[in-house]
Amino acid sequence: MAGLTVAAIAAVGFLAYQASANVPDTLGAPRTASSPPASAPKSPRAEQPEAALPGRSGTGQRVVYSVRADRVWLVAANDKVRRTFSVTPGTVDPTPDTYAVTSRSGSITGSDGVAVEHVVRFANVDGTTIGFSAAVDGSTSAPDPGKKLGGIRESRADGDAMWEFATVGTKVVVVE
User: Fold this and answer.
1) Low complexity bias located where (predicted)?
2) Looking at the domain assignment, is residue 27 inside a domain?
3) Residue numbers of the chain with a pLDDT score lower than 70
4) d(CA 79, CA 161)
5) How far apart are CA 37 and CA 55, in angstroms?
């Protein structure tokens, strides 16, 4: 009987721990270079160590995207970084500028034919829509260089955080 009680307490503790990892209010503190997520996307560009929020990236609540570092920062209204993560860009980059989230889709098929979720769109470059998304299968492979693709792929966990953070109208600052 005592063995069953110990097993039940252990199971409840484990489930409570898992549930606490999924609280939307806590999008997570910035990760350190020594502890990247197991599902970190592999960038076709050189992998950069985690960097501080770029200077001249605006103020207030915003998404900051560095096309050179292939990195995103989710920045709260108090200018504190709530989360940062690496991404795999498409073949078409947005011009450094300030944009706003224009539309979102829960799940669609991306322009590369991959099922994606939590699509957050913010720009259009010569007819190519630019936005963040996560592949439903978790893949973050490099895009086909022969196609014009504007999807900026993130892990599913990072896609969940982006979805919670970047509603329509949220500022997106693109920097080099």
Assistant:
1) 29-43
2) no
3) 1-50
4) 17
5) 25
Report if pTM > 0.90: no
Residue 50: predicted pLDDT:
59
What pLDDT score does 51 carry? 78
Q: Quick one: tokens of 114?
A: 């991959």
CATH number at residue 135: 2.40.440.10
Per-residue confidence (pLDDT) for residue 2, from 0 to 100: 52
- In terms of Cα–Cα distance, which of 27, 73, 28 is closest to 48? 73
Q: Work out how many domains the chain is built from and give that number.
A: 1
Residue 61 near residue 100, CB atoms below 8 Å: no
Q: Specify whether the CB–CB gap between 101 and 169 falls below 8 A.
A: yes
Quick one: which of 171, 126, 164 has its CA closest to 24?
A: 164
